[in-house]
Amino acid sequence: PSGHHFELYADKEYTGKWGVNEVNPEAWPRDLKGMAAVRFDHCLLYGDELPATYDLFTKVLGFYLAEQVLDENGTRVAQFLSLSTKAHDVAFIHHPEKGRLHHVSFHLETWEDVLRAADLISMTDTSIDIGPTRHGLTHGKTIYFFDPSGNRNEVFCGGDYNYPDHKPVTWTTDQLGKAIFYHDRILNERFMTVLT
User: Fold this and answer.
1) Which residues are designated catalytic?
2) Quick one: which of 60, 155, 165, 179 has the most CB atoms within 10 Å?
3) Where in this chain does the record put each VOC domain (predicted)?
4) Do the domain assignments include residue 80?
């Protein structure tokens, strides 16, 4: 409904636990390079039809609502959905155009890893969008940057743990600055409008 195309798989090739042996494994892979992201974490997508997208993801695919943003009329304008105990696996923001990407996010283990990623981003003269900072939404610690194709990427650590029986956390649009950028609480125009 949001204009995004998803491919669902019932099977996948087993590749092991992120680069360590299954018998007597080391604490972490010895050959991690760069930012050393350990997995894909989530994506944030923009599109219209949020209610229909919500129904598809919750009623058909089994996701649940972890966090949401409501406007002054009580209409949901952002929905953070989880299929696990992560803060979210996918999020959708209402936008008049279908099929837009805000960012993809990769998981790092610690805040120190996020700061190291910031150093690597700076060392390579990569365009930093925002951060390092913390979100109010999800409470994740983060930095955003643009890849050579112009797509926004995030490396992210921490964040809330959710369970399907938890009540969703609700934010209101009048507190959106705090929700997105907890430290300075100021909305950034580029962060809100640059989509691919």
Assistant:
1) 42, 88, 103, 135, 144, 154
2) 155
3) 39-158
4) yes
